[in-house]
Amino acid sequence: MKVYTLIQMLLSxxxxxxxxxxxxxxxxxxxxxxxxxxxxSSGLQFEAGATGAWNLANxxxxxxxxxxxxxxxxxxxxxxxxxxxxxxxxxxxGGHSAMEGWDNSQGGVLILFSQMNNISYNQETNTISMEPxxxxxxxxxxxxxxxxxxxxxxxxxxxxxxxxxGGISFLSPAHGFGADNIKCLDVVLVDGTLVVATxxxxxxxxxxxxxxxxxxxxIVTKYELYAVHTGxxxxxxxxxxxxxxxxxxxEAVINATAHYVQTVGDPRAxxxxxxxxxxxxxxxxxxxxFYNVTDTNTTTLPSSIFGELLSIPASSTNITQLSYLEVLxxxxxxxxSGSGETFGAGVFSTAESTQVYLDARAHWDNFTQAVAGTGxxxxxxxxxxxxxxxxxxAGRARGGNxxxxxxxxxxxxxxxxxxxxxxxxxxxxxxxxxxLFLNQLHRSPGFPFFMNECDKRQNVYETYGDYEFMKKxxxxxxxxxxxxxxxxxxxGL
Length: 493
Hints:
Family: Belongs to the oxygen-dependent FAD-linked oxidoreductase family.
Number of helices: 16
InterPro entries: FAD-bd_PCMH, FAD-bd_PCMH-like_sf, FAD-bd_PCMH_sub2, FAD-linked_Oxidoreductase, Oxid_FAD_bind_N
CATH architecture of the largest domain: 3-Layer(aba) Sandwich
Organism: Rhodocollybia butyracea
Protein name: FAD-binding domain-containing protein
Largest sheet: 8 strands, antiparallel
Keywords: FAD, Flavoprotein, Oxidoreductase, Signal
C-alpha cells in the first residue's frame, strides 16, 4: 500500500511538473506574439490580477502568467498557443466564482478580461454590445442614460460570466434568464478559431449550448444582448427593498416563501430572494422584494402577492420607490471578500409541499451546528430564488437554452457560505457536513440546478433538459476533450 501511494505521489509530481513546463512554454510563446504589456508573469498588474478574485480560494492560486487581451485577436493568439503547448488555463471575467479553480489556474495560463470593457447601445436594433471585462454595475450605469439595461446579475460587482451559467436577474421573471437575452456571441474555439454564433446560423448548436453551458464550449469575447427599457435614474418604476426578520420569525418566512413559490406567477414580481443567515446557530432572515409597477404613483407593494411576508413581524423594513439602478445596487458585492466562499445547489418545483422547505431548513440547521465549532465560518446562508414559469416561457420564446427547464416554475436553492477572514478552505469535517446536507436535500426530478450557485462537484449538466444535446455538441467543437482536461469547470461532459 505504501509503495502504491509513493508511486501515485511520484506520478502526480511528474504530471504537475510537465503541466508547469507546458504553461511556461505557452506563456513564452504568447508573450513573443503579443508583447510584455499584454502578457505578464510578475509586477503590480500581474499581482492585482492574480489575487483579485472574489473567492480567496481562487485569489491564492498562482498562474504562470496572465494574458491581458485588448481585443478578440489577442484571445485567439493565446488560445492557439495554449492548445499547441498542451497547457492548463483559466478564463476570468468578473472573478465572482465560489468554485475553486473556475476562474484562476495554479501554474497555468490565466486569460483575464479586465482590459476588455467596451459597451455600446444601438437604438435602431435595441441591442447592447459589450465585452466580457465589464461588471453588471458598470454595464447598467453605462446604459442608464439611454433608459435601458441588460438582463444581467443581481449584484453590481458580478461579471458577464454569469450569462454562460444561465444568469438570474431582477428582470428575469419577465424576460427570461440572462442567457435568453443573448442575440449574438463572438466565440474563440479551443484551437483559436473565431466564430460568430446566433440562434439561426451554422453555429446555432454552439449558441444554444453556451446559453447555460458555462465556459466548456469556448471563450466568449463579445456579447450582443437584447436591451430592456427600464428608464433612467430619474424614473422610479419599482417598489421594493429589504426586510430583515428576527430568529422568531424564520419559520414563518420559510412558510411564506413556500407559498409564494407555489402560488405567485406575476412576472412583475421580479425577485424574491430569501436569505437565511447563521453566525453561531442563531438564525435571522433577510428578504428582498421588488415589484415593477405600471403606475409610478404607487408607493406600496401589492398585498395580493407579498402580503404574507409583509405581515410577519420584522426587525426592520426598508421599502421605497426605486429606479432599476437602485434595485441593482441593493445587493452590492465586493470584488475580493478576503475569505473562502463555497456554494451548493438544490431545486424544488412549485408542486412541492411546504414541508419540503421546512425539511431543508432543518437539514441546514444540522449543517450549521456541525460547522459552528470549527471556527472556520463567518456565516452560512440558505437562499431561495423563485424561477416562475413566465421566466422559462420567455426563454423559450427566444429560441430556448441548454438548461431547458420544464414549464411550471420552481425555486433555486443555494447553500452559500463565507469562511472567516483569511480562511480559504473549509476544514475536512465541514466539507463532509456540506456534502451530507446536499445529499439530504430533496431535489425535484426533472428540474435543473443553477450552475452559478452549485458546488464544484455537482453534475449540473445532468439536471438539464438538454444534457444529451450538450454532450454531443461538446464533442463536435472539442473532439480531443482539451477543455475539460485542461481547464477546471463543471463536470459531466
